[in-house]
Amino acid sequence: QVQLVASGGGLVQPGGSLRLSCAASGFASDTYVTCWFRQAPGPERERVSFISSSNGNTYYADSVKGRFTISRDNAKNTVYLQMNNLKPEDTGIYYCATADDGINWLAGLIDHWGQGTQVTVSS
Question: Could you give the dihedral angle defined by the CA atoms of residues 54, 58, 89 and 123, in that order, rounded to the nearest 10 degrees?
Answer without folding.
Answer: 80
